[in-house]
Amino acid sequence: MVETNAESSPLPSLAVLISGRGSNMMAIADACERGELPAHIALVISNRPDAKGLEHAQDKGLTTDVIDHKAYASRQLFDQALHDRLCKAQPRWIVLAGFMRILTPEFVNQWEGKILNIHPSLLPKHPGLDTHKKAIESGDTEAGASVHIVTPELDAGPVIAQVRVPVLNDDTAETLGKRVLAKEHQLFIDALKICLSRDSAGR
Ligand code: GAR
């Protein structure tokens, strides 16, 4: 674990889970830093030791940890390790920002109503992987991203916010994915703002 000497904050805390590049995590960290998002990132966890996002988080002075899924014999054991680590951090929100692991129902139920995920499609359309390819192959005229509360069923929880982009005639999964990603960052910040303001209002 790489720990910082960041003082504990009175703001609601976020644990951000990543598996790769971490551009959504960085957008959230920047929004916290400039005060747009009234929260602080207590911890960034990656299930991959080589995730690029870990370096970016450390450069920003965030506390990071790796829970390598390959070190666990089952999904249940990995989720137990994740649960134990999160129990120590006690975040208000667990933010799945490009976290590419399916969580067990047991884990999700233990953190019910506290896990947010960003998914690169207009849910309920195209849950799972290869969302941009699916949107193009289905002849969709619009694609986008959704932020939703995580429930035991994959990509099926209540949607908090969505962003839409047109699908262009010459789009490939890659070009469409880039255009959607460019919109994901603000979407995630806006969705977190909604969740935090609901918290403050006691809803
Ligand atoms: C984002 O496009 C996010 O929507 C997607 O992974 C990417 C992570 O990018 N998440 C999923 O597909 C989850 N099912 P990032 O690491 O640069 O934030």
Topology (elements, then pairings):
Layout: E1 13-18, H1 23-33, E2 40-46, H2 52-59, E3 64-66, H3 75-89, E4 93-96, H4 105-110, E5 115-119, H5 131-137, E6 142-149, E7 159-166, H6 173-200
Parallel strand pairs: 1-2, 1-4, 2-3, 4-5
Antiparallel strand pairs: 5-6, 6-7
Helix pairs in contact: 1-6, 5-6
Bound molecules: glycinamide ribonucleotide.
Beta fraction: 15-25%
Q: Outline, from the CA principal axes?
A: globular
How confident is the prediction overall: mean pLDDT? 96
Structural class: alpha/beta
For the record, give the distance between the C-alpha atoms at the N and C termini, rounded to a whole number.
Answer: 35 Å
* Estimated radius of gyration: 17 Å
Q: What do we call the CATH homologous superfamily of the largest domain?
A: Formyl transferase, N-terminal domain
Bound molecules: glycinamide ribonucleotide
Order of helices and strands: EHEHEHEHEHEEH
State the strand order across the main sheet.
Answer: 3-2-1-4-5-6-7
**How many domain regions?**
2
- According to CATH, the fold-level topology of the largest domain is Rossmann fold
- Taking pLDDT < 50 over at least 5 consecutive residues as the criterion, the unreliable ranges are none
Number of helices: 6
Instruction: Please identify the top-level CATH class of the largest domain.
Output: Alpha Beta
What profile does the largest beta sheet have? 7 strands, mixed
Number of E-state strands: 7
Please give the share of residues in helix: 25-40%
The CATH architecture of the largest domain: 3-Layer(aba) Sandwich
